[in-house]
Amino acid sequence: MRVRVLGVDPGLTRCGVGVVEGVAGRPLTMLGVGVVRTPVDADLSHRLLAVEQGIEQWLDEHRPDCVAVERVFSQHNVRTVMGTAQASAVAMLCAARRGIPVALHTPSEVKAAVTGSGSAGKAQVGAMVTRLLRLGAPPKPADAADALALAICHIWRAPAQNRLQQAVALHAATAPTTTKGRTS
Questions:
Q1: Residue 9 annotated as binding?
Q2: What is the pLDDT of residues 126-141, one digit of tens each?
Q3: Is 41 flagged in the annotation as binding?
Q4: Catalytic residue status for 70
Q5: 70 a known binding residue?
Q6: Integer angstrom CA distances of residue 105 from 11, 13, 174, 176
Q7: Is 9 marked active-site?
Q8: Whole-number Å distance between alpha carbons of 125 and 34
């Protein structure tokens, strides 16, 4: 089943967005890529509003089945990680408001899915995104390429994750229950 995914590489100054459509194991199609930018000197609340408005426009235009957001991880610069977390929360809120499922992927998961190495550099990710989507050049800036990589990662990983979740649910539903040390 073809799926359309909006990838979001959260950031307060540059929030990468990219839409990819396809099926795991088949050629994928890029439907759009860009960056939602906010002015560094603007008030935080206005910057978050600008990110929200930008993501809403992408959701309106592309109508994704799912939104894949980079999972925020601890960085040395607390200010940077706070802005990233805030932009991430805005993206998740926009999707939830519309009833669109959200998937979180770590940077190493995305890199491993796209390049085969969880420690790949930005240039490697950009090169593989270009190759996988049959683009003429790597998307610029790197935030845009990272957003496409998130969407690709989700398309490739979601079927396996869904099967795993179904197996866990089936096991839980069929496992004997225990009451006071006895199985029923």
A1: yes
A2: 999 999 999 999 999 9
A3: no
A4: yes
A5: yes
A6: 15, 21, 30, 33
A7: yes
A8: 16
